[in-house]
Amino acid sequence: MGKYAENTTVSSGESRIEIENTLTRYGASGFMYGWQDNRAIIVFTMQGKQVKFLLHMPDQNDREFTHTPSRGTLRSDDQRAAEYEKAVRQRWRALALVIKAKLEAVESGITIFENEFLAHIVLPNGQTTGDYVLPQIEEAYSKGRMPDMLPMLMSGEQHD
After folding, report:
1. Which residues 6+ apart lie within 8 Å of 28 measured at CB?
2. Looking at residue 121, what DSSP letter applies?
């Protein structure tokens, strides 16, 4: 099965604008976009919560861009750039779909905002709840028990 929107001609910029417009339509009170290296970020504020999506981009030097899939022959610079841009457009279209679907599920009463965006809600220390909780989930499954409730107290650290 192919990836969603793998052959889209919608530019990354158009997808970012669509995401911003979708967020505005559903009541966001703030929006930010940026990028660094092979990552892009979308941050928005809605229902009193800050939400962050990191969008990891593929490595331009991956074989899927540098070589043809059938014969494995080296692609020209223009062909490489075109294949890479195709992959970037696909990721932006997928993110636009995810955000729109989550917001519509909330709007339709299927779920609540916090449940739908839980892993992406930014905590006061700047981490997302996903960044904070996922290691604890892994620990719980690997050890077969719940992690300590207050790990900073268990390690003997002093906090004032």
Report:
1. 44, 45, 46
2. B
pLDDT digits (tens, 9 = 90+) for 107-122: 999 999 999 999 999 9
Tokens of 1: 């099965």
How far is the C-alpha of 53 from the C-alpha of 147, rounded, in Å?
A: 26
Q: Report the b/e string of 52-86 with b at 16+ CB within 10 A.
A: bbebebeeeeeeebbbeeeeeeebeeeebeebbee
Residue positions counted in the chain:
160
pLDDT category of residue 1 using cuts at 50, 70 and 90: confident
What is the rounded CA–CA span in Å between residue 157 and residue 37? 36
Tokens of 90: 């696909």
State both tokens at 54.
């990191």
Per the CB < 8 A criterion, the answer to whether 121 and 49 are in contact is yes
